[in-house]
Amino acid sequence: MSIVPTVYVDAMGGDNAPEVNVEGAVAALSETAARIVLVGDQDQILPILKIEGKKAKKEKELDRICVEHTSEYIRMDDHPLTAARNKKQASLNVAMKMAAADPNSAFLSAGNSGAILASGVMHMKRIPGVERPAIAATLPTIRSFFLLVDAGANTQCRASQLAQFALLGSQYYQFTYEGTKGKIGVLSNGEEDSKGTELTRETVEILNRINSAGLLKKGAFVGNVEGKEVFQGGVDVVVCDGFTGNILLKGLEGLASAVVDIMKLEIKKDLFASFGMLFAMGAVKRVKDRVDYAEVGGAPLLGVNGHAFIAHGGSTGKAIKSAIRVAAKAAKSDLPKALFSIIEETKPYITPQANRASGDGKGKQ
Description:
disordered C terminus; Isopropylmalate Dehydrogenase; alpha/beta; globular
């Protein structure tokens, strides 16, 4: 008998909570067999749940959704660490704690990402050996997708931490897309090993040692990768510090929106372009879906000893639905075990002693 996973949703998290979280939970009933627990203010959640269930004609399936009441929640502008520590009965903390206690579950929130990180470390704890968890955002390439790690959790990092981000991201990618290598590239301003900052050069050195030791699949580490190359599909995991990653992520969101607006303006200026657009609508929609975060779902918080996902703060019901689907799939896997395995195997090559080792391709054992 297969185990039915549970997704614990911080129903009060996000710019449009709790409406979109409830809407997404109801919509997800058609895409997953998971049990969904909405954690938050039941006085707000229950009326919305009734309306959304009726609208989606899912009244008979609502028994797979239950509500865990708590009236406290963490705001988007709250100080992350302070809120995670002091608001013990906040919906985010309660949902995280419940997910941490349930081995066949996942956590999801569109709320304060810093508080999610802090709460994840407090309740799920870190996978043994992991220095810092990282956010892995999924972005499109010409052919598929790549992971951007870290997408905003850690603004200042050491090379050992970036190397771990690479390993965690590669392992997760292989879990998500079966048959892939999880090819790693370190984001830099040039492909040569001499390019980049001291941080990126040290990171490349560590990953070269790990690669030389045979701990990565053949061809799974390509070295530096430039920003213009990441969308060509040559790498599966792009590694950088969270400050750089978050700027890249938000810049791309703004660019995608601007391109759509520019196209609309230009089409309005040209009658023939308007007619042509009628024939191209199918292709345009497919392109839009490829770059739409609402299709991708949540970003995993890699490195915590459990399954935790962060959705976009401005998520729609569609985005929450997609995130619940992804979280439910992860909850049925033993991803933390796989992540622990690669961190444990590579530990001798990431330690400060290994960083000072002579350049013979091997760290001190």
